Amino acid sequence: MTIFSRWFRRPDILATETPKGPWGGSGDDGNSGPRNPWAQPPGGRKPAAKPTALDEFLRKARGSGGGGGGTGGFGGLPSGANARALWAIGVAIIAVVWILFTSVHQIGPQQRGVVTYFGKYAGTLDPGVRLTMPAPIADVTVVDVQKIRTDNFPVGDGENLTLTGDQNIIDLAYSVRWDISDPRDYVFQLAEPNDTVRAAAESAMRAVVATTTLDQAIGTGRTVIEQRVADLTQQILNDYKSGVRIQGVAIKQAAAPARIVEDFNAVTAAQQEAIANLNQSRSYAQQVVARAQGEAASFDKVYEQYKLAPEVTRRRMYYETMEAVLAKSDKTIVETPGGVVPYLPLSNAKRLPNPEAVQSTPAPAAAAAAPQPGAAQ
Question: Is 345 a residue whose pLDDT tops 50?
Answer without folding.
Answer: yes
